[in-house]
Design goal:
Blueprint: E1 12-21, E2 24-34, E3 39-44, H1 50-57, E4 65-70, E5 73-74, H2 79-84, E6 87-90, H3 102-113, H4 120-126, H5 142-154, E7 160-164, H6 172-187, E8 191-195, H7 199-202, E9 208-213, E10 216-221, H8 223-229, E11 234-240, H9 246-255, E12 257-261, E13 275-281, H10 286-293, E14 297-303, H11 307-321
Parallel strand pairs: 3-8, 3-9, 6-7, 7-8
Antiparallel strand pairs: 1-2, 1-4, 4-5, 9-10, 11-13, 11-14, 12-13
The structure holds adenosine-5'-triphosphate (ATP).
Adenosine-5'-triphosphate binds next to strand 2 and helix 1.
């Protein structure tokens, strides 16, 4: 693997990036860094500025203010033309020539990118289009087109990948395979920035995340860090042993908000497993509540706040501020 001069630096460095379209600020002072080898998630509501940021990181549109340094080069500099050959991009709506076969499309992109044609067939195989390589794109399904888009983004072994809603249209097996491909790429040192509206899909897969709200950076960090900054309640579902003293139930109520409780739990003749409680617990009381539940519960299911809940929380804060 070659040693690029930018290998030591963070591949994406954004400083106070701003962009207006007429009076509309699409990006309003975004500063962040994507570290080498990271799988980095960029999320935000429709119109938050994700695609605009991607296009700016690719040098396709210029900032109204601030600075973008990508693979070691200012996106406005002549040196960035060279850096761009090491960037792969899958746009939100990948469209291509309908009358060409998948392999011909890939040849075309390889030529445009100055990448060798000889890897194209293997790349199609890797994204699951080996059997369809000779078929015209016209007959491809939505998921097949998305796979072809991914294949073109992977041409030339990019060091940095920008993938805009890449799993749109993929079936569950396709999604799993897609992340396996990203995993391989990262193993070879690539850095990947991905957007998605399917937060459940990316929450366990990305290393860090940025949340954009109305063109501003609302949050940046790992899922754990985001949870610390916005301490939403945990949901604890407990299977309670029958015949609990009322005082135990009172102490559970005092530690969290009991969302659901089977009052028959007090009945000593209940069959095992019939007594259930769901409790929303502030994170700082988690250990206390678990200690209180341990002697009286036969089963516990603890659900940390999901990325979706955190994201919606930031949305509420944004709405209140405007
Ligand atoms: N070429 C353009 N001309 C005018 N306004 C634009 C242009 N491109 C983007 N915008 C505006 O900039 C804002 C950000 O748009 P952008 O496409 O970056 O959002 P997004 O986060 O990618 O949204 P989505 O999730 O819907 O794809 C929106 O208000 C949009 O209308």
């Amino acid at each position: 693997m070659p040693n690029f001069p930018d290998d030591a630096a963070d591949p994406v460095q954004l400083l106070d990036v701003r962009r207006k379209f007429g009076p509309v600020p699409a990006l309003d002072g975004v500063s962040l860094t994507v570290r080498r080898g990271e799988l980095f998630g960029l999320i935000g509501h429709n119109g938050a500025g994700k695609s605009t940021l991607f296009k700016m990181m690719l040098g396709l549109i210029q900032p109204s203010g601030g600075m973008l340094r990508v693979l070691g080069a200012d996106t406005r500099s002549a040196a960035f033309r060279n850096a761009r050959t090491r960037i792969g991009y899958l746009p939100e709506n990948f469209v291509t020539y309908e009358n060409l076969s998948g392999l011909e499309v890939l040849y075309l992109f390889a030529d445009l990118k100055n990448a060798p044609r000889r890897g194209c067939a293997a790349l199609l195989e890797r994204v699951g289009l080996g059997d369809a390589a000779g078929r015209r794109v016209h007959g491809y399904s939505k998921g097949m087109r998305q796979r072809l888009g991914l294949a073109q983004a992977l041409l030339g072994e990019p060091r940095l990948l920008f993938l805009d809603e890449p799993t749109n249209g993929l079936d569950p097996a396709g999604i799993a395979d897609f992340y396996a491909i990203l995993h391989e790429l990262r193993g070879r040192g690539a850095t990947i920035v991905i957007t998605s509206h399917i937060l459940a899909e990316i929450q366990q897969r990305v290393d860090r995340l940025a949340i954009l709200q109305g063109g501003r950076l609302a949050a940046l960090g790992t899922l754990g860090e985001l949870r610390e900054r916005q301490p939403l309640p945990l949901r604890i579902a407990a299977t309670l042993r029958p015949g609990l003293p009322a005082c135990t139930l009172d102490s559970l109520r005092s530690l969290g908000l009991v969302l659901e409780m089977n009052e028959a739990t007090l009945d000593a003749k209940l069959p095992p497993g019939a007594g259930r409680a769901t409790i929303a617990c502030p994170p700082e009381r988690k250990m206390q509540l678990l200690a209180a539940l341990a002697p009286v519960a036969s089963g516990l299911d603890i659900q940390e706040p999901t990325l979706e809940q955190l994201f919606l929380g930031y949305g509420d804060a944004h709405a209140q501020a405007h």
